[in-house]
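Action item from last meeting closed. Structure (156 res):
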């Protein structure tokens, strides 16, 4: 079984990166879905990171891929999905990239949704939640191809 710790949209609040690292020290993988607005990329050391729409000056990729226990994962910030037909666009990106799981941020609203054989995951925002959600990050466990998602509220 592998543990994947996922965060997004801390918008310059480095203490949230430290908080997640401190509370999830046993992660096998750490993912940041963008809009870290990190002033120094060393704070994201150990994370698989993608560039968010507010990470103008950061030299990060727009997307990343990861395979964990045979499960293929596509990581992006999510600003290109728009708000109309969002799930259709997410389904398309997974299909084109031969992936099963999409991990993204941008909306600041947590999501764990299964659509056929696809999974859509958003950890929410650690600093600026929207839609009535709490400040959060996520933990995803993958065990022999089975996914177990846990949303973690920031207790700070």
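Sequence:
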């Amino acid at each position: 079984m592998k543990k994947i710790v996922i965060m997004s949209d801390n918008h310059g609040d480095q203490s949230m990166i430290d908080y997640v690292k401190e509370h999830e020290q046993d992660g096998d993988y750490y993912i940041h879905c963008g809009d870290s607005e990190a002033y120094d990329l060393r704070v994201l050391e150990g994370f698989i990171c993608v560039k968010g729409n507010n990470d103008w000056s950061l030299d990060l990729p727009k997307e990343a891929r990861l395979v964990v226990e045979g499960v293929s994962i596509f990581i992006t910030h999510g600003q290109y999905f728009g708000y109309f037909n969002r799930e259709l666009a997410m389904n398309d990106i997974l299909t084109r990239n031969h992936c099963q799981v999409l991990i993204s941020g941008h909306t600041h609203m947590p999501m764990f949704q299964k659509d056929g054989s696809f999974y859509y995951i958003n950890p929410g925002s650690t600093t600026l939640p929207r839609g009535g959600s709490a400040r959060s990050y996520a933990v995803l466990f993958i065990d022999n191809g089975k996914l177990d998602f846990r949303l973690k509220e920031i207790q700070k």
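Note appended to the action item: Strands lie at 2-7, 29-32, 47-49, 63-68, 71-76, 101-103, 111-115, 118-122, 136-143, 146-153.
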